[in-house]
Amino acid sequence: MTSARRLTELVDEVFRLSDAFARAGDTIVADEGLTASRWLTLGAVAHESLSVAAIARRRGMRRQSANESVAHLEAAGLVRREPDPADARAPLVHLTEEGRRTLDRIRPRRLAWATQTSSVVTEGELSTAVDVLRRLRATLEADVPQ
């Protein structure tokens, strides 16, 4: 089999895996009234405040999807938007104390899921997979004008 065919198989698997991860994420955070997408958005601002565009880049989302997630999280009191002193056009999204408590409640469920799910592969296999996927993504991002 050629590398091109194997890459096509990988792409198919990545799309199916992405869907499976989203469904698993939805299950993990359902008790919090969140979706996997909103959880990703919430987690993106856990350590630093970001603009919606920066959240979208960090999480591999469309800006519109990130903005919709921020709007829902803001309505739920989990994040707040404040002006960015460096760029008045793009407010920064900040995690609220309730948002922090929500992430703290999710953490044990996420860890249990990750421990169980990763048990079918070795740490070395996971490291190799992450490295390969990062190289492929970097190649694609370098070839596509932003």
Topology diagram in text:
Elements: H1 3-29, H2 36-44, H3 52-59, H4 63-75, E1 79-84, E2 87-95, H5 97-117, H6 123-143
Antiparallel strand pairs: 1-2
Helix pairs in contact: 2-4, 3-4
What descriptive keywords fit this protein?
Arc Repressor Mutant, subunit A; globular; 6 helices; 2 strands; 68% helix; 146 residues; mainly alpha; single chain; two-stranded antiparallel sheet
Could you explain how this protein is built, in words?
This protein has one domain: Arc Repressor Mutant, subunit A (Orthogonal Bundle), CATH 1.10.10.10. The chain has a two-stranded antiparallel ribbon with strand order 1-2. With 146 residues, the protein is mostly helical. The model has no long low-confidence stretch (mean pLDDT 95). The chain is globular, with a radius of gyration of 17 Å. The longest helix has 27 residues. The protein contains 6 helices and 2 strands, in the order H-H-H-H-E-E-H-H. Helix 3 packs across helix 4. 68% of the residues lie in helices and 10% in strands.
State the helix count: 6
Number of domains: 1
Bin the strand percentage: 5-15%
CATH architectural type? Orthogonal Bundle
Low-pLDDT sequence parts: none
* Largest sheet properties: 2 strands, antiparallel
What's the rounded overall pLDDT mean?
95
Radius of gyration: 17 Å
Count of β-strands = 2
Distance between the termini: 33 Å
Shape: globular
The SSE string, one letter per element, is HHHHEEHH
Structural class: mainly alpha
CATH class: Mainly Alpha
Strand order of the largest sheet: 1-2
What is the CATH homology-level superfamily? Winged helix-like DNA-binding domain superfamily/Winged helix DNA-binding domain
Helix content: 55-70%
Find the CATH topology: Arc Repressor Mutant, subunit A
